[in-house]
Amino acid sequence: MRSVLNNRAFLLFEVMVSIVIITVSLVIIIHSFSYSKDAILRSKELFKASLLLENKIWGFEEAGVVEEGAKSGDYAGDEAYGWRLSAGRTGDSEINLVVMEAFRKSDPANTSYSLHTYLKNKI
Fold first, then answer.
1. Global confidence as pTM
2. pLDDT at 8 over 90
3. Which of 121, 123, 81 is nearest to 102 (CA)?
4. Which class for 100: exposed (0-12), middle (13-18), buried (19 or more C-beta within 10 A)?
5. What is the 3-state secondary structure (H, E, C) of 64-104?
6. CA-to-CA distance for 7 and 100, rounded, in angstroms?
7. β-pair partners for 69
């Protein structure tokens, strides 16, 4: 009967191996959660910038004329973001190539999102 009881007990080594396996698994899970959280924050920022760009470009399209050159400014509804516009004529005098950028003012070099489009001048 004594040999049966000895076979059922865990060795210290087995317990340590199981703790290492559980720890490694938890580290991997927490690491993937961290990456997921960062991806969600980046996608929220990209979505916000795309909405700001879309709103601004529609304003220029409604006005009907985009002059050549560069312009910049701030978004009225969101003080954390600014915008830059660069417009140039194509071969057709009625169509402008427009590059519109939205950027976070605190870090404009790393948070610049751009939209490239053509706008036709209204006559």
1. 0.66
2. no
3. 81
4. buried
5. CCCCCEEEEEECCCCCCEEEEEEEEECCCCCEEEEEEEEEE
6. 73
7. 87
* Cα–Cα distance list, 69 to 6, 72, 73, 97, 100 (Å): 85, 10, 14, 11, 12
pLDDT in tens, 53-93: 888 888 888 877 777 888 888 888 778 888 888 888 777 67
35 or 4, greater pLDDT: 35
CA torsion sign, 84 to 73 to 65 to 53? positive
Torsion angles phi and psi, residue 69, rounded to 5: 115, -165
Where do the domains of the chain lie, and which CATH numbers do they carry? 2-120 (3.30.1300.30)
Rounded CA-CA distance 67/119 in Å is: 11
Nearest-angstrom CA–CA distance, 45 and 38: 11
10 pLDDT band, cuts 50/70/90, is confident
Give the C-alpha separation, 38 to 59, whole Å.
32
| Of 122 and 96, more confident | 96
